[in-house]
């Protein structure tokens, strides 16, 4: 498997892969508005600090993506993963762990010090990330507030 910056020619395939992964168990996201989906993907992939990494299999087919941002912080640069997904056909076969290892090598070469992300505690991804060296910060929480109508 190989990791590289997501190629422009693979953006449509990336969206299909994203929808396939997150429209199914355990997420069941409802991306019914294509305009909203395109805006979201553009937000993730076309900002100055975006870092969109793609995992390609031995045949050169796109099988995973890590979409996020690089930020500067007092401890150094960090990569915040907003979306991380691997083809459902490749899940539970080590592809995700391999992807994270390859990402780590790229980030190390770019002198990025940390990877951060958020996920739900009730989904398999939570244990996947812990298995791959991520830890819960004991003094931090992830907060959300719905904007009043």
Automatic annotation (TrEMBL):
N-acetyltransferase domain residues: 1-148
Superkingdom of source: Bacteria
Pfam families found in the cross-reference section: Acetyltransf_1 (PF00583)
Record-level Gene Ontology MF annotations: acyltransferase activity, transferring groups other than amino-acyl groups
InterPro entries: Acyl_CoA_acyltransferase, GNAT_dom
PROSITE patterns the UniProt entry points to: GNAT (PS51186)
SUPFAM superfamilies hit by this protein: Acyl-CoA N-acyltransferases (Nat)
Protein name: GNAT family N-acetyltransferase
């Amino acid at each position: 498997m190989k990791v590289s910056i997501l190629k422009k020619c693979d953006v449509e395939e990336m969206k299909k892969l994203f929808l396939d992964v997150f429209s199914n168990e355990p997420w069941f996201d409802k991306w019914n508005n294509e305009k909203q989906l395109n805006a979201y993907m553009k937000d993730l992939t076309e900002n100055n600090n975006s870092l969109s990494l793609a995992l390609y299999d031995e045949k050169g087919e796109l099988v995973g993506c890590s979409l996020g941002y690089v930020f500067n912080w007092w401890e150094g640069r960090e990569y915040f993963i907003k979306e991380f997904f691997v083809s459902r056909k490749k899940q539970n076969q080590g592809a995700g762990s391999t992807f994270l290892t390859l990402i780590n090598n790229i980030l190390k070469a770019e002198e990025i010090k940390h990877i951060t992300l958020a996920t739900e505690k009730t989904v398999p991804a939570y244990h996947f990330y812990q298995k791959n060296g991520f830890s819960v910060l004991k003094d931090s929480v992830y907060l959300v507030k719905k904007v009043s109508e």
